């Protein structure tokens, strides 16, 4: 029996193809939700706090400060599913329903999970309806903006896509 071959890593001399931006899915509370066409805003920002070192007034040091997470914008095709709309309406009514949301990057074949970003305690903060135009043949795309309290990145571990 042969040992499994580890996946190549991005080291000097090893070329590893980057993942394709279109090969992803979105899970809300570990349930595949809708057909999302775009995800924007994954990020984290650490404020920089500057201070002058005691005894050496000309040296300005920097330390990390407050951590913030920008809202994540989701774009998805309009369907008759009311799941995301109902989630939004709980926030409109002042009863925020926080959920864990995962953006899952799939391998090149689109069959296994390569990595994921987890949005912790996400809730809908904004919705925009699809532009409607009788002269267009475009898909009707809605926009949902999620606020969240944290971002985690996990290696996919070869999980099969749901």
UniProtKB/TrEMBL annotation:
Residues annotated as transmembrane: none
Pfam families to which the protein is assigned, alphabetical: Phage_T4_gp19
Highest taxon above the source species: Bacteria
PANTHER family documented for this protein: CONSERVED HYPOTHETICAL PHAGE TAIL PROTEIN
Name of this chain's protein: Phage tail protein
């Amino acid at each position: 029996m042969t040992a499994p071959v580890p996946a190549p890593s991005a080291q000097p001399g090893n070329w590893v193809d980057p993942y394709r931006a279109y090969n992803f899915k979105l899970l809300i509370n570990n349930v595949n939700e809708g057909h999302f066409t775009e995800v924007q805003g994954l990020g984290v920002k650490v404020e920089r706090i500057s201070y002058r070192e005691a005894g050496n007034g000309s040296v300005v040091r920097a330390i990390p400060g407050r951590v913030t997470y920008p809202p994540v914008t989701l774009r998805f095709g309009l369907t008759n599913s009311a799941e995301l709309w109902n989630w939004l309406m709980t926030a409109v009514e002042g009863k925020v329903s926080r959920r864990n949301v995962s953006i899952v990057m799939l391998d090149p074949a689109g069959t296994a999970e390569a990595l994921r970003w987890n949005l912790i305690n996400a809730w809908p903060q904004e919705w925009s309806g699809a532009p409607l135009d009788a002269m267009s043949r475009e898909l009707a795309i809605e926009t949902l903006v999620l606020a969240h309290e944290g971002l985690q990145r996990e290696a996919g571990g070869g999980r099969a896509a749901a």
